[in-house]
Amino acid sequence: EVQIVESGGGFVQAGGSLRLSCTVSGFTLDEYAIGWFRQAPGEEREGVSCIRSSDASTYYKDSVKGRFTISSDKGKNTVYLEMNSVKPEDTAVYYCAAERFGCYSSNFGIPWQYDYWGQGTQVTVSS
């Protein structure tokens, strides 16, 4: 059975840092790429970052480049999203998702490309 569980969300002041975790089971990180998405109230879900652990390729939304870092620990079946210099506009529910055929710069931010989703974790950045 496939399971995806996000954790690490919470409240943080602008300029601070937060690390989100995405722990998966039922498949390995070499089999599936993992993407992070976020959705703010009244907004569409948008892709933030993605990692193909099989070759360590990573992709980022322009607005988070240089601030967020995605990484994976295959031994723990966990993908991390390190969020630094956070801004109020980063406030959203953050979701982790798995994609069987990998993620690439052209498609990592397209939600329907992904096969499995977690329940999400809330991140709130105060100004």
Question: What structural keywords apply?
Answer:
127 residues, mainly beta, seven-stranded mixed beta sheet, four-stranded antiparallel beta sheet
Notes on the structure:
The structure is a single chain. This protein is mainly beta and 127 residues long. It is 0% helix and 50% strand. It contains no helices and eleven strands. The chain has strands at residues 3-7, 10-13, 18-25, 33-39, 46-52, 57-60, 68-73, 78-83, 92-99, 116-117, 121-126. Strands 2, 4, 5, 6, 9, 10 and 11 form a seven-stranded mixed sheet that branches. A four-stranded antiparallel sheet has the order 1-3-8-7, with no helix packed on it. A hairpin with a 4-residue loop joins strand 7 and strand 8 (78-83). The model has no long low-confidence stretch (mean pLDDT 96).
Shape summary: globular
As a whole number of angstroms, the C-alpha radius of gyration is 13 Å
Helical region count?
Answer: 0
Q: Would you count the extended β strands for me?
A: 11
Mean pLDDT: 96
Q: Could you give the order of the helices and strands?
A: EEEEEEEEEEE
Report the structural category.
mainly beta
Low-confidence stretches: none
